[in-house]
Amino acid sequence: MSTTDDPLAWAREYTPVLQSLGDEHEDDEPLAGYTIGLATHMEAVSGCLVEALNRAGAEVLFTASEPQSTHGDVVEYLDDQPGITAYVWEGMTDEEFDAAQHELLEREPDFLLDDGCELISKCVADHPEVAETVLGGGEQTTAGITRAEAMDEEGVLEFPVYGVNDTPMKHYFDNVHGTGESALVNVSITTNTVITGETVVVAGYGYCGRGIARKARGMGAQTVVTEVEPRKALEAHMDGHRVMSMDEAAEIGDIFITSTGTRDVIRREHFEKMGDGAQLANAGHFDVEIDLDGLAEYAESVTEPREGITRYTTPDGRHVNLLADGRLVNLTGPASEGHPAEIIDTTHAMMFVTAYDLLTRDHGLGPGLYAIPDRLDRDVAERKLDTLDIDIDAVTDAQEQYADDWRHEDSAF
Ligand SMILES: NC(=O)c1ccc[n+]([C@@H]2O[C@H](COP(=O)([O-])OP(=O)(O)OC[C@H]3O[C@@H](n4cnc5c(N)ncnc54)[C@H](O)[C@@H]3O)[C@@H](O)[C@H]2O)c1
């Protein structure tokens, strides 16, 4: 089959960890008999996760976690495979996106692999009879973990959910490097303008913001960070970024990128202070970080000077350029494909091992949000190192003894 007939061909080459899991489990099919409902950004690398779960025997029902990030060729290809059904298509509206997720849940999946807690929250809120039979779930993003935590605190989660986002193998790589690189690359491609020499304002210095700010500086930008958490603000300062309020940053920024997980981080009082040509982009999960209604109300006119850019002309004649409608810029811009394949490889490998562990091992876990056992995270890290042909040292017996010997009797002191 040529690459053009198979939209997953290139991604398969760059997802060695997922491929190793598929290879290892395709003969014994440990997930046979289970139906897995998956919500994620549907592009070629996510297609490799669908394929790996299916190779391990699962029936896979997949949908989107954001209506605008779907690649139609990938969906059509997967939907044609036995044991795989798509509940998503390219160009779906927000209403169709919601309806498709409900339709998937009506198929009564045994397990939910989620992004943004879309399926888990809808299942619990609107399909209580299905929630009673779901055996478990996994959540891959920060925003979804926040929702799952709120559900757990309210006592409404009906099944155990692993917090995939909170593992080192997810957030140290996906959030920091994946979002960092792909957000900046997509700002640059969408606008066809430089990052170097520009003042890039990053709102939020969590895992994603840290990656964006670090990489923007690497590309030659002046970097400014805004925060609400004093320790994160101090960390950004010590990492060499300028830290200030959004009020101050609005006056000096050229490119603004939000990655906070909350709403209205950039709002009217900030639009009023921005220079002509300011570029606004969001890398956080939901399209609420830039106050879009406030921007539309403030503007005198709105045009589309280039695909993926909405230009708001202010009453005093300045242009404020919004990228990708304020949705995830690395996933919904005109040329976006999300994170680089090698990065999503390990994130999706964590999703695979989540389903594998909760479905094939009896942990006796009740409903709730759980940390993923460290051995699973370590296993994915070891697989990744293997694929990179990197050897590391092993702890020696003497070192193990030394760590256990709290009296340090062998100490020279
Ligand atoms: N674009 C992507 O592909 C991608 C990938 C992973 C995560 N995400 C999303 O990015 C967002 C951030 O994820 P993260 O892992 O960095 O989370 P995080 O919790 O590590 O960081 C968020 C940071 O934002 C700060 N913050 C909160 N409100 C703020 C405000 N009003 N102004 C400035 N800073 C504020 C918090 O103090 C925190 O330090 C989430 O919505 C997450 O789901 C996107």
From TrEMBL:
Cofactor note text: Binds 1 NAD(+) per subunit.
GO biological process: one-carbon metabolic process; S-adenosylmethionine cycle
Positions of the S-adenosyl-L-homocysteine hydrolase NAD binding domain: 175-336
Highest taxon of the lineage: Archaea
GO CC terms, sorted: cytosol
Amino acids binding NAD(+): G206, Y207, C208, G209, R210, G211, E227, A283, G284, H285, N330, H339
SUPFAM superfamilies reported in the protein's UniProt record: Formate/glycerate dehydrogenase catalytic domain-like, NAD(P)-binding Rossmann-fold domains
Keywords attached to this entry: Hydrolase, NAD, One-carbon metabolism
Cofactor: NAD(+)
Pfam families found in the cross-reference section: AdoHcyase, AdoHcyase_NAD
One term of GO molecular function: adenosylhomocysteinase activity
Family: Belongs to the adenosylhomocysteinase family.
Record-given protein name: S-adenosyl-L-homocysteine hydrolase
